Amino acid sequence: MARSVFSILGGSMNEEPKAARPADGAFADLSSWRKIEVSGDGALSWLNGLVSADLEGLGPGRARRSLLLSPTGGVRAEFTVVLSGGSLVLIQDPVQPRSIRDLLTPYVLSSGVELEDRTENLDLFAFPGRTEPPEVAGAAPSAPSCLGRGSDLILASGDRERVLGQLGNAFALVTAEDIEAWRVAEGITRVGPDVSEEDLPQEGGLEDAVSFGKGCFTGQEAVAKVRNLGHPRRVVLSVEGDASLARGDAVFADGAAVGSITSAAGTVALAKVRWSARGGPLRTEGGDQLRLKK
């Protein structure tokens, strides 16, 4: 049975969400997340030439957060690249409107690369805040986590009940709502709620998923131009207030609307605002102050 991460931490749902730590013994079932296998001769080189992260040197058990950008630098998809069982697996949050498999398919052509949806064949458990996942027979470790921080276990769906039983002896399964609250409290942006296809990586808090030192990739010129010659039009900020916040709430600065709340968990939220308003002071429509979290 899923337990609240708040009860594990000894808090309550009225308190600011806290990040799970190794001692908390929390894990999440993310088996519904998309898992796309990329195989074939030269699969790594082919993928590396398209996506924003530098995949060179990616070894077993290690992961890289990456993006597929449009030619103008917009974020088309965010995903985690994992080397598991000799194959590349792309793990993608299903809240994103378009599958990374569908987005990459037009680039396959005669490359010899194959894309296969393994979502129903592979299960995924995430351990937010843990540097490494527990050792479980038949499950492959991966770090950092597809959640942005932490670590993961990837396993064949046929091993699901056995692994769940083993994990249940030492860890508590938390809810999707708790993971969302943890994400917001940690200030981790999510493509879909916080980041749209019109946003550049720098506008969506995703600059760490871009390697500015690798060779060419789709959208590289646009993101490099912002980095070297200017600044983004807007940014996503981590904020907190004294009253509950909700997605869609307007954010004001000097009496003018400058953005809106994109994700919220109680009094903690992520807000997308104009670049010029990034330093605050920011307020809600009702005049309540929004403090910038560090």
CATH topology assignment of the largest domain:
Gyrase A, domain 2
Radius of gyration: 20 Å
Distance between the termini: 34 Å
Strand content: 25-35%
CATH class of the largest domain: Alpha Beta
- CATH homologous superfamily annotation of the largest domain: Probable tRNA modification gtpase trme, domain 1
List the domain count as a whole number.
2
- CATH architecture name of the largest domain: 2-Layer Sandwich
Name the structural class.
Answer: alpha+beta
Name the helix and strand elements from N-terminus to C-terminus, one letter apiece: HEEHEEEHEEEEHEHHEEEEEE
Structure description:
This protein is of the alpha+beta class. It folds into 2 domains: 5-186, 2-Layer Sandwich (Gyrase A, domain 2), CATH 3.30.1360; 233-294, Aminomethyltransferase beta-barrel domains (Elongation Factor Tu (Ef-tu), domain 3, Beta Barrel), CATH 2.40.30.110. 15% of the residues lie in helices and 31% in strands. It is built from 6 helices and 16 strands. The chain has helices at 5-8, 43-48, 100-104, 160-167, 176-186, 220-229, and strands at residues 26-29, 34-39, 63-69, 75-84, 87-92, 114-117, 122-127, 139-142, 151-156, 172-173, 234-240, 250-253, 256-265, 268-274, 282-284, 289-292. The strands form 3 sheets. A 6-stranded antiparallel β-barrel has the order 11-14-13-12-15-16. The chain has a 5-stranded mixed β-sheet with strand order 8-9-7-1-10, with helices on one face.
